[in-house]
C-alpha cells in the first residue's frame, strides 16, 4: 500500500473513534425538555401569532372606522379645491380629510398624487377603505373615492352635487374605472411632506 493511503486509513479510524455516539430520540427529548426549548419555542410562536392577529384586527377596525367616518359626510356639498365640511370638498380633498381625521395619515392633495403615493391592488382585492380611481376628465386618476364594500364607493362627485355613495358597476363608473389602491400604514411617513 502506498504511504498516503495508510495515512488516510489511520486518520479515518481515529476520527471514527473520536466522534461521539449518535443520541437516541429519548436523549434528545430529555435535552430539549431540560433546557425548556420546546416551551420557549411555543411561547415565541404564540407571541408572533398574537401580533399578526392584533395587526389584522387593527387594520380591519381602522377600515371600518374610516368608512363609518366617511358616511358621516354624506350630503356635504362639492366644492372645487374644497378641504372641509364647512366649505365643501372636492374628491381628493374629501379622501385626504377622511384619512387624516380617521387614521392620522396625510395623503397628497390631488387624486393623481394620491394614486402615485399608494399601493396598486387588483380590483378583486378591494376592501373597505381602499381608494378607487376614475378617468373623468380625459386623464388618468382625475377622480378618487373610498371603497365602502359591495361594489360601492363614497365620493364628492362634481359641482352642484353632494358627497354620496355610488355603485361602481353603473356603466358611467365602470367605463371610467382607472384602478384600485391601498393606503399602507407607512403612507403617512412617505407623504407627510406632501402638504400643499
Descriptive overview:
- The chain is built from seven helices and eight strands.
- It has 196 residues and is an alpha+beta fold.
- The strands form two sheets. Strands 3-8-4-5-6-7 form a six-stranded antiparallel beta sheet. Strands 1-2 form a two-stranded antiparallel sheet.
- A hairpin with an 8-residue loop joins β4 and β5 (143-149).
- α3 (37-71) crosses α4 (91-102).
- The longest helix has 35 residues, at 37-71.
- 26% of the residues are buried.
- Mean pLDDT is 79; it is low at 4-20, 52-58 and 188-196.
List the SSEs and their pairings.
Blueprint: H1 3-18, H2 25-35, H3 37-71, E1 83-84, E2 88-89, H4 91-102, H5 111-116, E3 119-121, E4 131-134, E5 143-149, E6 152-155, E7 164-167, H6 171-176, E8 177-182, H7 187-191
Antiparallel strand pairs: 1-2, 3-8, 4-5, 4-8, 5-6, 6-7
Helix pairs in contact: 3-4
Mean pLDDT across all amino acids: 79
**Coarse shape:** elongated
Cα gyration radius (Å): 30 Å
Number of helices: 7
Are there runs of 5+ residues with pLDDT below 50, and where?
4-20, 52-58, 188-196
Biggest pleated-sheet summary: 6 strands, antiparallel
Brief overview:
By secondary structure, the protein is α+β, with helices and mostly antiparallel strands. The protein has helices spanning 3-18, 25-35, 37-71, 91-102, 111-116, 171-176, 187-191, and strands at residues 83-84, 88-89, 119-121, 131-134, 143-149, 152-155, 164-167, 177-182.
List the defining traits of the structure above.
196 residues; two-stranded antiparallel sheet; alpha+beta; disordered C terminus
